[in-house]
Amino acid sequence: MTALTRDIAAAESTDHDLIVIGGGVYGVCLTLEAARRGYRPLLLERGDFNAGTSWNSLRIVHGGLRYLQSMDVRRFFESVSERRWFFRQFPDLVGVMPCLMPLYNRGLKRRSTFGMALRINDALSLRRNVGVRADRHLPHTGLVSDEQVAEWFPRVDRDGLRGGGRWFDGVMRNHQRLVMEMLRWAVDAGATVLNYTEAKALTTHAGAVRGVEAVDRVTGTAHLFTAPVVVNAAGPRCVAVAETLDQAHPELFRPSVAFNLLIDHEPLASCAVALEPKLPDARTYFVLPWEVNGRPRVLAGTFHAPWRNDRPFDDPTPDESLVATFLNDLNTAVPGLALRREHVLRVYAGLLPAEEEGTEHTAHRPVWVDHGKANGPAGLFSVSGVKYTTARLVAEQTLHRVFGRKLRDYRPAAARPAPQDGLDFAVYRSPANTPEAIRRIASLESVVYLDDMIHRRADWGADPAAEADARAALSDVIGDTPPTRALDADAA
Q1: In 156-266, where do the E strands start and end?
Q2: Based on the domain organization, do 199 and 161 belong to the same domain?
Q3: Are 228 and 264 contained in the same domain?
Q4: How many C-beta atoms lie closer than 10 Å to residue 266's C-beta?
């Protein structure tokens, strides 16, 4: 049985091939890619795994249809390929999501233009189902009639409707489990992963990396981990980590705010709907039918906004005015919807890299820094990615930059282990979720605090009412010890 054992002493006594800093999807994919090639990576995460921007994603594995509008064919092919990787490796966790865009003959959303985009999408993604399990195959896209749009989306605005476009993407129904399964796979292949372990300084010899000094944020004890390569993949904190280990490189991450809303409302459609309110310079949102604790709800996103530099960097919670704008846009796009702030169960907010400082437009490409080539220590690298879907590809590209032609091939024996079982990770009040079963999973998946179990091993905390129920019941099973005062101070 694969276990994520938080054995810091054992990690300290092991010589690792590389140390990865950051336990979001980019750091996790980097650790997995390295382990599958026979390297011995060590992952250090200052908080819990998957606790930042990755946890707040919209859960869609995009195939890149949007990139055809800007003729960014490279990103399109990358997205199609990586979406196929998710379907091939995690068919139990990534399902097929039909998507619908009502068309009103405005701009690029004209029926003729969008129909051409769908045809090009099918022509350029002929291999999208190669090696994919039959029940995860993506059908052909196409235009549909007004009547079909109304059948799938009864509340559609019929004024000026010119049918719609329908396509298919991937959806992570429980993205917490997806990240945990990636971590389990990495550990099974030889990786070591440590949460609540913060990198504090780089150790070097003759201008080259020797390892990392870190602190256990649970006990406060200091530790030294050795490796000739360190990769900073700390997401929104990658600039701060780069400065801690060497020097700041602001080009790595210029922050912008991105957030999604979990809404207490019956699903608007039987598929994901792309909505664009009839307003000047309107944003396009995706509204998904979603299930939370066994109940149908709505997940909507993504709203992008510039980052305010006067805000605490570790708190990306958007201003209430932005939430109000989001709800108003949805109400404008759907006749009679009448969503109010009290309908919002949870705001999923994170930071994404922007093209330029102070803008809401997200970056198009990953950014890498080889610190050794920038007058820093040899063996230190930093990487900042953009999309959840392409995290594995960026990890592979990073390893090519680190090891060059010496990069090892995948080991045939490094196949994914059997998925974790024993709990109902979606519905807390399930007969399977006995105290003994919960303790077992907690011991196997490096659960330190109650929040780790409720929010990042399972999806029991999406609905605040269900979270309160789970927290009250689990406080005697796992314990509800809050993070230490030192941990809270560091996060401020």
Answers
A1: 164-172, 192-194, 197-205, 208-216, 222-226, 230-232, 255-263
A2: no
A3: no
A4: 10
If you search the block for the tokens 């997806």, which residue do you land on?
Answer: 178
385 in the same domain as 277: no
Supply the range of the domain harboring residue 440. 435-491
Q: CA-to-CA distance for 229 and 208, rounded, in angstroms?
A: 9
| Same domain (yes/no): 149, 184 | no
Indicate whether 29 and 98 sit together in one domain: no
> How are strands ordered across the β-sheet holding 197-205?
197-205, 208-216, 222-226
Angle between helices 111-124 and 73-89 (to 10 degrees): 60
> Which position has the token pair 């994914």?
416
What is the CATH classification number for the domain harbouring 224? 3.50.50.60
State whether 229 and 377 are in the same domain.
yes
Coil/strand/helix, residue 256: strand
Per-residue pLDDT of the chain (492 residues; tens, 9 = 90+): 789 999 999 999 999 999 999 999 999 999 999 999 999 999 999 999 999 888 888 999 999 888 887 788 999 999 999 999 999 999 999 999 999 999 998 776 789 889 999 999 999 999 999 999 999 999 999 999 999 999 999 999 999 999 999 999 999 989 999 999 999 999 999 999 999 999 999 999 999 999 999 999 999 999 999 999 999 999 999 999 999 999 999 999 999 999 999 999 999 999 999 999 988 888 999 999 999 988 999 999 899 999 987 777 778 899 999 999 999 999 999 999 999 999 999 999 999 999 998 899 999 899 999 999 999 999 999 999 999 999 999 999 999 999 999 999 999 888 999 999 889 999 988 999 999 999 999 999 999 999 999 999 999 999 998 899 888 888 888 865 554 333 433 332
Tokens describing residue 291: 């299930």
Query: What amino acid occupies position 94?
Result: V
What's the one-letter identity of residue 168?
A: F
d(C-alpha 224, C-alpha 209), whole Å: 13
Total count of domains within the chain: 3
136 within a domain of the structure (yes/no):
yes
Do 131 and 205 lie in a common domain?
A: no
Distance in angstroms (rounded) separating the CA atoms of residues 249 and 242 = 7
Residue 413 within any structural domain of the chain: no
Model confidence, pTM: 0.93
Angle at 171 between CA 57 and CA 67, to 5 degrees: 75
Cα–Cα distance, 203 to 262 (Å, whole number): 44
Residue 453 belongs to a domain: yes
Q: Which residue has the tokens 């129904």?
A: 173
Same-domain status, 398 and 280: no
Which residue in 279, 318, 315, 313 sits closest to 302, CA to CA? Answer: 318
Task: Record the tokens describing residue 487, joined without a space.
Answer: 């941990």
